Amino acid sequence: MPELPEVETIRRSLRDDLVGKVIDHVEVLEFKQFKGDPKQVAGKKITDVIRKGKMLTLVLEDSLFLSIHLMLTGQILFAEDGKNAIFKNIIPHTNSNKMPNTSTRIVVHFKDTSALYFNDQRKFGWMKLSDKIEETKSVDVLSPEFTLEYFKKSISSSKKPIKPLLLEQDKITGIGNIYDNDLLWEAKVHPTRKANSLSNEELEAIYNATVKIIQEGIKYKGSSAKDEMYVLPNSEKGSYQEHFKVYHRNGQPCLRDKATIERIELAGRGTFFCPKCQK
Question: What is the fold, at CATH topology level, of the domain defined by 139-273?
Answer without folding.
Answer: Helicase, Ruva Protein; domain 3 (1.10.8)
